[in-house]
Inverse folding.
């Protein structure tokens, strides 16, 4: 019976060509429609789609609520639920802005910049300019906060092309399409595995490389730091690269500012790198934490950020449905 159940789980995880095609067609259709509707209607539809996902995939909200209970125990249930709904509003904005700015790889440079100018701006570019002047490249530390996909695209289109570290998607059709969008402003996507040599080369050429540092880590290159008051596994690769190369570490986040009705890619002062891997990793995550707490509804709480536990600790998500 146990073997049959194990084989059943494997079958569920196995991807068929039909599934890949179906997912690809659904995603392309959604973006196609959103890109062709008037902006206000497009956003309302994106919001409807995001909250439909919230209702039909309850596991996402369960994970988000568990994360909030772990990290913000002082909040009541109503406040936690409000933040979770805000997360899906943030996802809707990301979907909407990607559809309405960079969904077409056929746009020329001038048209792409014109679209971006309507909804996207940057602050703190003097920090970036000073970092480039040092000649050792930049390591951008960012996270799943606000419109993280837009940040690299906007930077590549309006400043200079950069490199992006990204894990290939499980669906190869979606992966090729998303990669083409990510590279549409001149950026390069580097696969998440086996990229140290490419990153070192990029930094040696005084390029910028962007990392999402806020995901759960299961590799051997990890340490445990305090994040939002909870022990969390974090990759040490970022801090080691910074110490080895002398690249300037700059936190940067593309956040929605409701009063301005714009996404603002904001760069923060460089993070000092001491060469102590754990201390440097903690310092980088503390910067992310500070910004996250100022914009809690824009972080992707639905991610099982605290899945990897120190030896012997129980899984914090084991009793959630489908977790």
């Amino acid at each position: 019976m146990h073997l049959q159940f194990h084989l059943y789980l494997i079958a569920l995880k196995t991807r068929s060509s039909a599934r890949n095609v179906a997912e690809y067609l659904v995603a392309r259709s959604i973006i196609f429609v959103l890109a062709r509707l008037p902006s206000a209607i497009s956003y309302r539809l994106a919001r409807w789609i995001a909250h439909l996902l919230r209702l039909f995939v309850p596991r996402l909200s369960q994970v988000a609520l568990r994360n909030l209970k772990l990290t913000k125990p002082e909040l009541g249930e109503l406040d936690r639920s409000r933040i979770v709904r805000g997360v899906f509003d943030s996802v809707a904005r990301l979907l909407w802005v990607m559809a309405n700015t960079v969904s077409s790889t056929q746009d020329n440079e001038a048209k792409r910049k014109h679209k971006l100018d309507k909804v996207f701006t940057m602050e703190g570019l003097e920090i970036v300019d000073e970092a480039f002047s040092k000649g050792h490249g930049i390591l951008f530390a960012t996270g799943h906060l606000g419109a993280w996909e837009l940040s690299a695209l906007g930077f590549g289109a309006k400043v200079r092309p950069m490199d992006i570290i990204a894990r290939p998607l499980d669906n190869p059709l979606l992966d090729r399409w998303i990669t083409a969008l990510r590279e549409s402003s001149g950026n390069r996507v580097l696969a998440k595995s086996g990229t140290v040599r490419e990153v070192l080369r990029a930094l040696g050429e005084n390029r910028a490389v962007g990392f999402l540092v806020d995901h759960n880590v299961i590799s051997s290159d990890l340490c445990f730091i305090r994040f939002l008051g909870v022990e969390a596994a974090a990759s040490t690769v970022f801090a080691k690269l910074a110490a080895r190369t002398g690249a300037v570490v700059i936190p940067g986040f593309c956040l929605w500012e409701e009063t301005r009705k714009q996404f603002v890619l904001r760069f923060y002062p460089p993070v000092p790198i001491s060469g102590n891997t754990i201390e440097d990793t903690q310092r980088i995550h503390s910067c992310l934490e500070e910004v996250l707490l100022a914009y809690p509804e824009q972080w992707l709480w639905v991610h099982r950020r605290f899945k990897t536990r120190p030896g012997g600790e129980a899984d914090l998500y084991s009793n959630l449905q489908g977790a």
User: Anything to note?
Assistant: The two ends are 22 Å apart (CA to CA). DSSP finds twelve helices and nine strands in the chain. The beta strands are 120-123, 138-142, 163-166, 188-191, 208-212, 222-227, 230-235, 248-257, 262-267.
